[in-house]
Structures are given as C-alpha cells and as structure tokens.
Design a protein that fits this description.
ADP-ribosylglycohydrolase fold, seven-stranded antiparallel beta sheet, elongated, 6 domains
Length: about 900
Amino acid sequence: MALCLAISLIARQDFVAYDQLVRYKWWYQHGYMSSTGHCFDIGAASKDSIVEFEKRQKMFSQKHNIPLDQIDFLSDRDLIEAFNVECSRKGVAGNGALMRLVPVPIFFFRDPVIAVEYSGVSGKITHGDDKVYDVCCYYGALIIAAFNGIKKEKLLSEKFYDNHLEWFGGRTLHPEVMAIVQGSYKTKAGGYKDGIRGKGYIINALEAALWAFWTDNDCFEKGALNAVNLGDDTDTTAAIYGQLAGAYYGYEKLPTKWLDSIYAKNFLLCVSSWIAYEGEKWSINQKAPDTDHLITFSNGTFFKSMVTSSVELMQNLVMKPKTSLTQYLTSNTILRKAIDSSGHIGYFYDGWQDSIIKSPNISLIINEDSSYPPIKCVIKSGKKLENRNILRRIDFPGDLRLSVLSNLVKPAGIALVVDYPFEIDECTRIFYYSYLVRKEAVIDEKSIQKQEPYKIPATHIITAMDSGIDVLVLMTLPADDPEAIDASLDQIRHCLKHGTQLTVDENVLNRITPTYVYSNVPHLAKQTKITDVYREICRIKNTLTEHQPCNYILTPIRNFCSGHNQQNTKFVPIEPRITTRIEDYWLRFSTFIKIWTIFENKAKSDVWQTDLKEQFGKVREIVSELMNQYDKQKKQAQSWIKHIRQAKELQETIEQRLRIEEEETKLKRSIEGLKHEMRTLEEKHDFIKYLEKNGFEYWNAKKRGIKQGHSEDVIQKTLIQDIRQQRILCSDDTLNAASRPQFKEILSQMLNEQGIDADDDNSDFLLRKIKSLCAEATNEDTEDYSCSYWHGCVRRQGYLYLSVNYLYFHSDLFGKEITILIKFADIIVNIATLERTHNLVSEIKHVCTRLHGHNFEMFRKIEETFQIMEQIANFAAKKVNFVY
C-alpha cells in the first residue's frame, strides 16, 4: 500500500485521495505493486474500506453516466470533488493507516503544513477514527522534521508539538495521542515487561514504534530488532519504526547485510528517487490556492489539487493499472541467470530473446575489488504449493522464466530443472545452494556516452557478473520415515551455510532415491548423492578456476552509445502479474505431462496391449491433443513475448491470445478427468493381474458377443458353451465397486478353483447384479432337488444340484441371492461329514469340507439324495487318495 501511495503521488504529481483508493483496490484485486503478484495479509479495516469504495464507484458511475470500465481513471476535478473518499466506518482505529504513511511526507516535506494535513487524510480514507487522523498527522510531522535535520532529542521532546503547533493548524490532538506526544513510552524503559505492546490498535503501535526509536542507541538495526522482538504485530511495528528511523538516519546507515537481501532493491531505489524528484518539482511549481483548483473533503478542509496533465509516461501509468512501473524504468539494470555461461563483462545482450551476443563487444575496466553476496542455502518441501514453481523458488527473474518455459531460450545448467521428470509433491525436497563472487565494471563518464553506436540487435551490455556455484538438487524421500532424512539434510544446510564440519549418517541419506542435480558447474550436475554434492561444493568453493557464471547484471545499451537509436534498443519487461498468470497456466500443462509420461512408461505389461488396449488408446489420444495444444501455444507465444518486449504490442495481448481466462477452467477440468481415467485404468490393470495370479482367466464380455438385452440363459450359454470344469464370474467395474463385499466373498469361494472373470465394463451390456455361473453344473448331467439352506439362523429356500463332481446350491429369493458350490473331493468323508438329523417333517443333512460346514434341509427324496451324495463323496475321496 505504501508503494501504491507513492506511485499515485508520482503519477498524479499531487495528492489525489481518489487515485490512492483506486490503486489500493488494484492491489487488493490484482496484486498491483505486490512483491508476490498477489494481495496478502490485508487488514480487515483496509479490506472493508476498499470494498466500500468499490460500491461507491458503481453507484457514482450510474449517477454520473460514467462507463464502469472508466471509473478508475477520473481526472475531472468536479467529479473527483463530488466523490466522498472517506470509505471507513467511524471508530476504526487500526495501525494499517500508519504503516504506509511515509510517501506523503517524502513528497510534501518542503511545505510542512500541507504535508502534515495530507498525512492525516491519507490515513482517514481507510480508517475513520479521529485518533487515526491525529496519529498520522503527528507521525508525519516527526518524519518531516527529520527530513529537515532536527535532532533526535528535539524530535522526541514533549515540547515538539507545541514548538510546531502551526504545522497542525493550531488543533489540539486527541488525549490518547497527546499522552504519547508527552513521552508516555519513556516511562516504560523495560519495553514489553513495562507495558509496551506492538498491537493492531494505532495508539499502541505508535507508542511501540517511538519506544523502539528512543531505545535504539542511534542504530537502525537495533531499533528494528527492538520493534520486532516486542512480538504481536511485529511487521507493522517495525514498518512504522523504519519510516521515522529511515528518515532520520538515512540510507547510508542502513545495515549492508539487509540492503543486499532486500527484494526489488533497484526498483525501490528508483521509486524513492522519483518521488523525491516529483516532490521537489511540486514545491517549485506551488502557487497560491485558486478556488478553481480546490477539492473539498468531508471534514470541510480544502486542499489544493494539481490535477494537471501528466507527461506521457505518467499517463501510461495512470491509465494502465496492471502495468508495472518497472516497464518504464528503462535506465535500470536488470539481472539474468547465466543459462548461457559464455558471457563476459562488455558483451552485448539481446533482452528481447534473452541471448548473449559475443561479437562485437566493448572494453570496460573491471573493478578488482570483488564483492561476496551472502551464501544462500535453503531446503524446501514440495508440500507447499508456492515451492512447486522451482524457477520462481530459486529467484529466476520472471521475464527469463517466461523465456525458458516458452522455449524461447533453450534450458541449460540450472534451468534444466524444467525437465525434472516427476511431479513435485509432499515427498519432494528442494535443496538450493548459491555461492557468488561479483565483479563489476567501472561505470563513469568515460565509459558512458563515449562508445560508438553499433548496428546490432542488442538492448543491454553485461556490466557485472556473479561467478561461483549455483546448484539445485531435487530429491524424493521415502514416505514411511522422512523425519530422519530431513534432519540430516538440515545438518548439510547448516554446515554449508556456516562452514562447519559435517557429521551425518550417510546410510540415512542413501535411502533417498532418486536424486537429480542441476548446476551451472557441469561436474556438480553429474553427482547422484546429496553427500557427494556437499563434498564437491566444499571443494569447488575454494577453487576459483572451477567457478562458473551464475548471474549477468545488464545495463541498457543506450546509456553507453549516445548515437544509438533509442527506439531500436527499447526494452519493456513483461509485467510480473502477466508472467505469473502465464507460467502458472503452462505449469499446469507440464505437470500433467510429467504425470502422464510416468504412467505411460509403467504401462508395459501385456494387459495394456490386449485387454485394456482400446481404453488406453482413447486416453492416449486425448493426452496427445493436449500436448499438441501446449506445444503450439509455446511456439506462438515466442513471437508475442518478443513483440511485447520491443513495445510493439500491449502487455495484455498475450493473455488475450492465449485465452487464459476461458481456457484455464477448461484445462483444469480436462486434466482432472484424465487423471480419473488413468486411475481407473491402473486399478483395472491391477485387478486383471490379480485375477491371473490366482488362476482366473479374464474375458471382455464385448469381445465374447454379450449385448444389451441378452437374457441370463443366453449369457450363460454364450460364455460357457465350450468350457468344462469351470466357473464364470460376471461383473463390471461399477458393480465391483458398489458390491465389493459380495464380490470378495464370491472370489474367495472361487480362488481354489479354475475360473473365468467375464467383465462387462467395456460392452453395451449393463449388468444388474454380479452373477456366478457354474459350467460344471450347467454342462454335466445333473439332478436337482428342492431344499433349504441354513444361512446362519435363517433358512433360505432354493435348489440343490448334484453332478459327478459338484454339489451346487442356488437360492434367489426376494432379490437375495446365495450360491454354494462344493467339490465332492473336498468333503471329508472319514470324519462323519455327511450326517443326518431327523425332525418331525424334514431331515437336515450336514456337509463338512476342510474349511466350512453346511446344513441342507429336505422334505422330498430324502433317502435317495443322501445315498447319492454319500456314494459320490466316497468315490471322490478315493480319487483324491489315488492322486496323492
């Protein structure tokens, strides 16, 4: 929000609260000016005010007949004056208004009265309590005084307010604010234990920040740590402290180790210089207020509005909310990872295609005093989604990521990680190590503007290089026990970071398979174990001759060649928001392709080429279309990317042509559908292999001539017409899943018999229930007897079939089917397995096999049935004895 406020002041060249709210809305909705490209950690008060602002915009557009797509770009003074910008509820006093304040005093500090007033208004448009207005006015006054060179003891004096009363328009501040003005924090030297709290309430936040400034011993680092270590809302307390302390101590007193690590440092430096420049220009052009140039705020205060026409650059910034300011800062240096390691200081660079031009080159004096940026060594888990974009995770610039993903640049070195063959998931560990030595060219008036213009397609010149070690290791940990491995990996990280000796059990780390290494150092990329990578890093670090280029720092060519055609060297970086959107879209493609490739490579058994050939072929065909679409998009995008960088096309063009908005949902749905099909096929394959392993033969019912409308008799005759000594199980995938207990029970009964599984899943025939067909009972001469089977305590009426080899019982009563098939060879005759129990009207026959006992109750043909069963069982027993 501080950057949104700063860019508003730069773009409008004045304080326009409406424009500030517009940019806060862009941040909330689109990630405008966010370091991540997304809005994150927004406070409730700011969010509510932004939502309210958008509602008011919609009503305002209807009332004044302004198209909704133009409402963000109001420049008419009368319309801006008519819009109520105080969008917060009364009584909202959060600290969010104070933490973003500093661009206002930077811009207006030369006119303290206006600067203090604008400081208060900047807070109140999103936080409506009067205390917020007073706190922002007071803190803005302290920053203004710091810019004007007032000493610390006077800044923190209880008389500061009285001495600068005219800055506040003679107003009396709220009592809670006045208590802090008079030094309440000085009575709490112990900090947290004495009641200092860095909480969300703006009064607490102000007191905590001033306490940190008062106790910092004239050291910015100590004060910032004091603020953070209070706990609670740490980032806000430190941000508030940093505004005043930064203004007081200046850039040169900031800790170097922090400056070296700050994100988008060059961009922030440029914005800082630019806002200072525009503020100075505003001060020079300042005139006495004119009633035609006044904007009325709801509190009745009048402010001069310089809503003037901006230069063309500023118009672009105002009219294109999704366009990053960095696009227009063509004088800035940019950084590129050294995918091509052949570069040297003085070589030309084609930023449009991200390629090095080796000849011709210019001669630059190299500073012999090399600098050593901090060692970076991190280990991340693939569990977090933000870690799955590896190039982004290791700080590849967004423009270069797009060049690599679109194949505009052929991946090499560490960029080869885009070819990592597996999906990154919770078992993946990402190890990244960077050790750099920087050498820079001496850039002075002699080297700048003195070079002859060159007629080559170049945009930049390499003016500095980072050489050393850049290595990335991707590992897949076993899912059963990753904790021990993670602990060992952390030891490696600690040793490399701090230069200590490694003592770790290598057997633990050897469980990691596979390990993929990507590096700018070719020898490192050949390692296959993380411990070997560790040893090679330690060796190469101290062997300068093995260091390889890691980063190129590029300066625009027009800074060197005064006669060069400016238009021919213009380079416009693609906005981070667009870069992120495109790469996330493409990464969804590439991740699925990796999943498919692994799946396809596993599909090598004969089942895939026979029983599942048709289904597998259909999925492969859809995937092939998806891959062709992906390749086609990347090829088309190459020219679009170049045209945008050459300022020949608008930024949004590539999004529109790729149709990301409409295609993203469609792609996600297609991929989820394909994943489901792949899982289904894999389960089917495993099921068929399981059947084969247990003596079953798998049939596809469609290939056996089964069609919709066939009766059970037709199915039975069709399937078992030439089969003897078999049982056939008819089912499909839907029934298997829905009736799994029944299916397992039937399978378990058949496991010791030779069987066939007839699968109807890929046919036009739809089964109503799982059927078990007995080829023996159907094809042999059989006798059938009406009887009941005791299923636990329940008697089930059905028919008993007797053949030479089998006893077969079947009951299908009220939709409850029971099938019993017993080989007479399994009946244990010698231990009274055929027993007769009489009652008044029936007789129960006990049939025992090696595993189970069965009770059949009969009313008719009792004697005949028992004699036949006994004879067959005795005959079967003799056959068994003979075989053994």
